[in-house]
Design a protein that fits this description.
Blueprint (H helix, E strand, L loop, with lengths): L2 H5 L13 H9 L1 E6 L4 E3 L7 E7 L2 E6 L5 E7 L4 E2 L13 E4 L3 E7 H10 L1 H27 L2 H12 L4 E3 L2 E5 L4 H8 L3 H13 L3 E3 L3 E4 L2 H6 L1
Antiparallel strand pairs: 1-8, 2-7, 3-6, 3-8, 4-5, 4-7, 9-10, 10-12, 11-12
Helix pairs in contact: 3-4, 5-6, 6-7
Pfam families: cNMP_binding, HTH_Crp_2
InterPro entries: cNMP-bd_dom, cNMP-bd_dom_sf, Env_Response_Regulators, HTH_CRP, RmlC-like_jellyroll, WH-like_DNA-bd_sf, WH_DNA-bd_sf
Keywords: DNA-binding, Transcription, Transcription regulation
Length: about 230
């Protein structure tokens, strides 16, 4: 496989941007490209952790399931993001499941090769640690929200957090409406009816508008105080 075809997308990762040619060749030699169909499981809870994954195309859903099989979505990851880091952190088994939200293309590296790369490139090791720390802080915030915030507040927090990756046009933020109300409910530990109710309330008060393609934040200040 052409090296450029295998590693071009790594330019979109902040932690890989400054790698040398030799280091990129190392990635080329030690990664496998794989396509995963929508809703296919990449790994489940308690699966052995041997690899780390880089998302080239599509979205990945990181979830936990309770003993009754109820899903709690921890995160939705997008192209340019890394997952499966437990293998590099010395964990033998997965603590969560990774599921393809769309048809996805992944780069897969064995954990021993990723550890080797991190030892070779101290700057990369530092940036990788930053990514894990930020993800841990985000998870901690969500757990705190479960304790201290109402269902409506958690749904509004989801919208506010989504603004970080949205398009801004004359103060109106457009978020790609790529998640169903059921998926948003699982991300916010609410239920589909509550998500629909909050969205309807916000739309009625001209705070948001939405269709099948986009959610538009019309008045961010009002959203913050809702």
């Amino acid at each position: 496989m052409d090296q450029n075809l295998n590693t071009w997308h790594l330019e979109n990762f902040d932690c890989f941007f400054e790698l040398s040619v030799a280091e990129k060749k190392f990635i080329h030699r030690n990664t496998e490209m794989k396509t995963i169909e929508k809703n296919e499981v990449i790994y489940f809870q308690d699966d052995l952790a041997h690899s780390i994954y880089f998302i080239k195309v599509g979205r990945i859903r990181i979830s936990k399931f309770n003993k009754k099989g109820k899903e709690f979505i921890l995160n939705i990851l997008y192209p340019g993001e890394i997952f499966g880091e437990a293998s590099v952190m010395g964990k033998d088994k997965r603590k969560e499941a990774a599921i393809a939200e769309d048809k996805v293309s992944l780069c897969i590296m064995k954990e021993n090769k990723m550890k080797e790369l991190l030892l070779q490139v101290p700057m990369l090791n530092f940036k990788f640690s930053q990514i894990l720390e930020e993800r841990l802080e985000k998870t901690q915030k969500r757990l705190e929200d479960l304790i201290f915030k109402s269902n409506q507040q958690r749904i509004i927090e989801f919208l506010k957090d989504s603004v970080n990756t949205s398009e801004n046009s004359n103060g109106i933020f457009r978020i790609k409406n790529s998640l169903t109300h059921d998926k948003i409910a699982k991300l916010t530990s609410t239920n589909r009816q509550e998500v629909s109710s909050v969205f309807s309330y916000l739309k009625k008060h001209n705070i948001i508008d939405y269709d099948r393609t986009y959610i538009s934040i019309l008045d961010f200040k009002k959203l913050e105080t809702s």
